[in-house]
Every structure is written in C-alpha cells, then in structure tokens.
Design goal:
Blueprint: H1 7-22, H2 31-43, H3 45-65, E1 69-71, E2 81-83
Antiparallel strand pairs: 1-2
Helix pairs in contact: 1-3, 2-3
Protein name: IS110 family transposase ISPpu11
C-alpha cells in the first residue's frame, strides 16, 4: 500500500485492519488469527494493521482484475479460494 494512493481509502483499510486486530483472541487456533498474532508480537499493532490492510488490498485487487468472488472455507484450515 503506497502513500501515493487515495488517502481516504488507505485510512479506511487501516482502520478496518485495526478493528480486526482488536477482536483477536490469543487462544485462537485459526491459521489466520495465528498469523496476525505473530505479526503483532513481532512488528507491533500499527505495523501489523498496515500489513493486514496491504494484504487485503492485494486480494481485492486480484479479485477485481479477474472478475472473481472471494470464498473462504471456514474452519477447515484450507486456504481461501478465488473463483468465478
């Protein structure tokens, strides 16, 4: 996520990422939650939020470029899929 982009969009994405990080439970065993907890312990809350916002934006960009829909397989430990 670059600082040359839309300031409003960037702030919304980071604000959303902060909201996700705030809801994390340390005892969670979900792979995505574990990744976010590692980021927070290693990088701090702000940098983890920026990294999460960047990750989400890259996923959205690919979905829009390929006219696909995001579908997550909840609870089975598999990666999310992108399909038409």
């Amino acid at each position: 996520m670059s600082k040359r982009g839309d300031v409003y969009l960037r702030s919304l994405m980071i604000q959303g990422a902060h909201a996700v990080l705030q809801q994390l439970r340390p005892e969670s065993q979900q792979p995505d939650d574990r990744r976010l907890l590692r980021w927070m312990s290693r990088l701090g809350r702000k940098e983890a939020a920026i990294r999460l916002a960047n990750r989400n934006l890259r996923i959205v960009w690919v979905l829009l470029q390929n006219d696909q829909t995001y579908r997550r397989h909840a609870g089975d430990g598999q990666q999310a899929t992108m399909s038409h």
